[in-house]
Amino acid sequence: MIRVLLADDQALIRAGFRALLSAEDDIEVVAEAADGEQAVALALEHRPDVALMDVQMPVMDGIEATRRIAADERLSGVHVVILTNYGLDEYVYNALRAGAGGFLVKDTEPTDLLQGVRVAARGDALLSPAITRRLIGEYVGRRPNPAPTRLEILTNREREVTALVARGLSNDEIATQMVISPTTAKTHVSRAMTKLQARDRAQLVVFAYESGLVLPRG
């Protein structure tokens, strides 16, 4: 059973999402929050698999709530999916950098929302490669003082798999591309995530673009 936390300051939106998600046999809504501070507290109380997080909320916004969840080792199993009205914008980019595993537009099709929750629960990045290139390409160049790339801490193999993750390849596809077993591909991805302190594959994607390992227009 996939356990979901809903965080949105609009009760009507929460009710709509709850009705949709609760109708599924494999999904359970365990809590609802009306602001980011409540979201963090309820995440600690319920330890959901997925937190659907609105960006703009009172008291504490969704980006800061995401950052606090991502920084708390007790919540390492919580995968945050950002909900936005606006699609590609700086809020989404900042949320991904804060630790979100992906994002969904609020007017997405119901089937896409359900699929997104299931993908996020598995720990996979909920990011289209084409959308990611546009999003990160737009905002990476605006950072005045980019963080050290840390590329040197990765082996050549780990750099290669990180670049392939950023291009949207699954472990099986990486294995085919590199002519290795899927288990070995998964091991390389896991080691790269550990070295870079990445919570999930979405964090590898952000790192790959910000470090220049993958070019936004590449």
Automatic annotation (TrEMBL):
Keywords: DNA-binding, Phosphoprotein, Transcription, Transcription regulation. The keyword tRNA processing does not apply. Residues 3-121 form the Response regulatory domain. The keyword Transcription applies. Pfam families: GerE, Response_reg. It comes from the Bacteria. The modification 4-aspartylphosphate is found at residue 54. Residues 147-212 form the HTH luxR-type domain. CDD domains: LuxR_C_like (cd06170), REC_NarL-like (cd17535). PANTHER family: TRANSCRIPTIONAL REGULATORY PROTEIN NARL-RELATED, TWO-COMPONENT RESPONSE REGULATOR. This is Response regulator. It comes from Nonomuraea guangzhouensis.
